[in-house]
Amino acid sequence: MEASAYGLTWARARKHALTRMELASGLAKRPYDLRHAGISFWLYSGVDPAECARRAGQSIEVLFRFYAKFLDGVRRQANRLIEQSMEEWDRVSRVPPRQPDRNWAGNRPEELVRSGMAVGENGSHTA
């Protein structure tokens, strides 16, 4: 298909599919505009940049060059995810040490005395 025929076909398709307001806005004026919008949306949604580049059929270097403004948002999101993970790690790491089970036979006073583990008020062992 010749480039001019492609352009005419695209213009007719837009006229058929879009509202007057959408046509006037220039929405999807060129097929490339949709590609750019799609890649931008993927990046903004948090899709891995390497995956976006693969799907777009371009190198990661090209992606970084043309979509840097969207990648900044991806970095902020990545930083938020890392921060949340670190906070969760801190939260679960602060679990208080487990207290001995009071029902365990070895914790009963008579068992502590019998085993020689009981300590009197002055620090001496009671047996």
Q: Which outline best applies?
A: rod-shaped
- Would you report the number of β strands? 0
**Roughly what percent helix?**
55-70%
Largest sheet: none
Secondary structure category: mainly alpha
Give the helix tally. 7
List segments where confidence is low: pLDDT < 50 over at least 5 consecutive residues.
none
**Rounded mean pLDDT score:** 80
Span between termini: 101 Å
What is the string of SSEs from the N terminus onward? HHHHHHH
State the domain count.
Answer: 1
| Beta-strand residue fraction | under 5%
Q: What does the radius of gyration come to? A: 34 Å
What are the defining features of this structure?
mainly alpha, 65% helix, 127 residues, rod-shaped
Description:
This protein is an all-alpha fold. The protein has one domain (about 5-95). About 65% of the residues lie in helices and about 0% in strands. It is built from seven helices and no strands. α4 packs across α5 (about 60-65).
Question: Which helices and strands, and how do they pair?
Answer:
Blueprint: H1 3-17, H2 20-25, H3 31-44, H4 49-56, H5 60-66, H6 68-93, H7 109-115
Helix pairs in contact: 3-4, 4-5
Task: Give a nutshell description of this structure.
The chain has 127 residues and is mainly α. 65% of the residues lie in helices and 0% in strands. Helix 3 (31-44) runs antiparallel to helix 4 and helix 4 (49-56) packs across helix 5 (60-66).
